[in-house]
């Protein structure tokens, strides 16, 4: 019963493996032209995984989209201005086979326009707890079936560190946690990298391509970078590299501020 209530409250509809998210129930979800999924943190910044990081000036972020095959007036396409990997990250593309610190902050070239279909996601103030039910979201497959171009949702349970180490030998860092199905320890198999885990209405995890490629649908849990432990890095980057203009919404014209009134002339 608890699971059914959670699925309904979080806007998921569908079967027991792959769940089509209710349309536009994830206004913070971002599709990057690199093939990754990200999450909108504010009008300028998107958080994703660090695997695809070259040629950021050629990349585009797509916001307010539910079906990647569709086009609607809710859709916003914004060029990527900066791609900032977490400093110590050494990914499998560099042949070091390490998934540690697999996070990147993506700065948009212009601020997102907040609408009912484009909204930021809150960052966590505490870490997820073992046994907590969460929802993983992205575009891809939540099972062994075909990849979907519609947002996919799946309820997952936070597993203990001991279980994660036993079931996934690649899981070893205190900066990670893992999840599995509420019925087993099998992961979500959302492809593409950068799938997003939300617990209690706040962002808790980003799942990189490395984790998907190692354990997808193989009876292993999903491993996530634990966002609660990266707050200082996220806050530092955003505060030091955010432009001074914005934010604005579709309901608030982007007009210059009204100048102060001219003081009356001095009389003698």
Assembly status = single chain
Task: Give the helices and strands as they follow along the chain.
Answer: HEEEEEEEEEEEHEEEHEHE
CATH H level of the largest domain: which superfamily?
Trypsin-like serine proteases
Strand elements, count: 16
Largest sheet: 6 strands, antiparallel, barrel
Question: What is Rg?
Answer: 20 Å
Would you give an account of this structure?
The N and C termini lie far apart (82 Å). This protein is 12% helix and 29% strand. The radius of gyration is 20 Å and the shape is globular. It has two domains: 2-23 and 121-228, Thrombin, subunit H (Beta Barrel), CATH 2.40.10.10; 29-120 and 230-242, Trypsin-like serine proteases (Thrombin, subunit H). It has helices spanning 2-9, 161-167, 209-215, 231-241, and strands at residues 12-14, 19-21, 29-32, 37-40, 45-48, 60-63, 76-85, 104-108, 113-114, 133-139, 151-158, 176-181, 195-199, 202-207, 222-226, 248-249. The strands form three sheets. A six-stranded antiparallel barrel has the order 10-11-12-15-14-13. A six-stranded antiparallel barrel has the order 3-4-5-8-7-6. The chain is of the alpha+beta class and 268 residues long. The model is unreliable at 1-17 and 248-264 (pLDDT under 50).
Topology diagram in text:
Layout: H1 2-9, E1 12-14, E2 19-21, E3 29-32, E4 37-40, E5 45-48, E6 60-63, E7 76-85, E8 104-108, E9 113-114, E10 133-139, E11 151-158, H2 161-167, E12 176-181, E13 195-199, E14 202-207, H3 209-215, E15 222-226, H4 231-241, E16 248-249
Parallel strand pairs: 9-16
Antiparallel strand pairs: 1-2, 2-11, 3-4, 3-6, 4-5, 5-8, 6-7, 7-8, 10-11, 10-13, 11-12, 12-15, 13-14, 14-15
């Amino acid at each position: 019963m608890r699971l059914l209530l959670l699925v309904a409250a979080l806007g998921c509809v569908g079967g027991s493996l792959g769940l089509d998210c209710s349309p536009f129930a994830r206004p913070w979800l971002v599709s990057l032209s690199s093939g990754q999924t990200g999450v909108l943190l504010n009008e300028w910044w998107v958080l994703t995984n660090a695997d695809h990081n070259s040629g950021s000036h050629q990349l585009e972020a797509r916001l307010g989209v539910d079906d990647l095959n569709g086009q609607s007036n809710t859709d916003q396409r914004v060029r990527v201005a900066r791609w900032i990997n977490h400093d110590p990250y050494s990914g499998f593309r560099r042949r070091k086979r390490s998934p540690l610190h697999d996070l990147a902050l993506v700065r948009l070239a212009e601020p997102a326009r907040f609408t009912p279909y484009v909204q930021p996601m809150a960052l966590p103030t505490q870490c997820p707890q073992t046994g907590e039910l969460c929802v993983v979201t992205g575009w891809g497959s939540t099972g062994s079936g075909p990849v979907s171009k519609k947002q996919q949702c799946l309820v997952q349970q936070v597993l203990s560190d001991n279980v994660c180490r036993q079931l996934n030998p690649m899981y070893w860092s205190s900066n990670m946690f893992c999840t599995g199905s509420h019925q087993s320890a099998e992961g979500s198999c959302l492809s593409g990298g950068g799938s997003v885990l939300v617990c209690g209405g706040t962002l808790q995890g980003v799942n990189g391509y490395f984790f998907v490629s190692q354990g997808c649908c193989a009876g292993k849990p999903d491993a996530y970078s634990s966002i609660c432990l990266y707050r200082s890095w996220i806050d530092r980057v955003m505060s030091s590299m955010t432009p001074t203009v914005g934010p604005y919404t579709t309901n608030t014209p982007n007009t210059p501020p009204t100048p102060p009134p001219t003081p009356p002339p001095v009389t003698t």
